[in-house]
Amino acid sequence: MSARVDLVRTSGNFVLDGGTFAVENNVWVIGDERECIVVDPAHDPDSILETVGSRSLTAIVCTHGHNDHVNGAIPLADKVGAPVLLHPEDRELWDQENPERRPDWSLSEDEVLTVAGIDLHVLHTPGHTWGSVSLHVPEHGWLFGGDTLFQGGPGATGRSYSDFDTIIDSISRKLLVLDGATTVYTGHGPTTTIADEAPHLDEWIARGH
Questions:
Q1: Where are the beta strands (DSSP E) in 19-117?
Q2: How far is CA 24 from CA 8, 51, 126, 139, 150, in A?
Q3: Residue 73 near residue 44 (C-beta atoms within 8 A)
Q4: Domain at 31, CATH number
């Protein structure tokens, strides 16, 4: 069976610090023809299930705790019986969306998640939130970075639970050191590569976002 990455685009609202913003999210389904995991189950669990199809869904991974990355997690988990995984430092954000239900598993640095023979290495990349993680698949040159790194710069900081210097440290020490050909599958917007983003680090630092 060949490894594959499927994209589900969903739409909804991001809610934080008293503000509500319309957003479009990228939900990534990683696996093969038999089994898969879902990364960042945003807004529309039924559309995600359509992409999963008849495959076994073995885990639901949230790269961070913002509502627009976790609000489909519990409905999806209840339909398929898969565990929900989140870094513990984002538990407070998770609780804002899911106050009566805790995640099933706490992600940690250097943990390896395996699905369909694909090893996803967990990198703790705080800054956008304190518990943000990225999932690196060296064998295939994939990085699922959530909202840590986008085409054109780092994820947003300036709201609660975030810090610009911290996200720059995470990106420079853990992401930009990866192979330049690595494809970055982002939480919103287009994919990019490490090679495309790495030359611009100093620009991001100078502009402060």
A1: 19-31, 35-39, 56-61, 84-86, 105-106, 112-115
A2: 10, 17, 22, 29, 14
A3: no
A4: 3.60.15.10
Residue 65: helix, strand or coil by DSSP?
A: coil
Helix extents (H) in 53-191: 67-70, 73-80, 91-97, 164-170
For the stretch 112-123, pLDDT in tens is: 999 999 999 999
- Element at 15 (helix H, strand E): strand 4-16
Q: How many domains is the chain built from?
A: 1
| Domain region containing 200 | 4-207
**1 pLDDT band (50/70/90 cuts)?**
confident
Cβ burial 28-63 (10 Å sphere, 16+ → b, else e): bbbbeeebbbbbbbbbbbebbbeebeebebbbbbbb
Cα(first)–Cα(last) distance of the chain, in Å?
41
Residues recorded for the chain: 209
Task: Identify the DSSP state of 91.
Answer: H
Residue holding tokens 């008293």?
Answer: 18
pTM of this structure: 0.97
The β-bridge relationship of strands 142-146 and 149-150 is unpaired
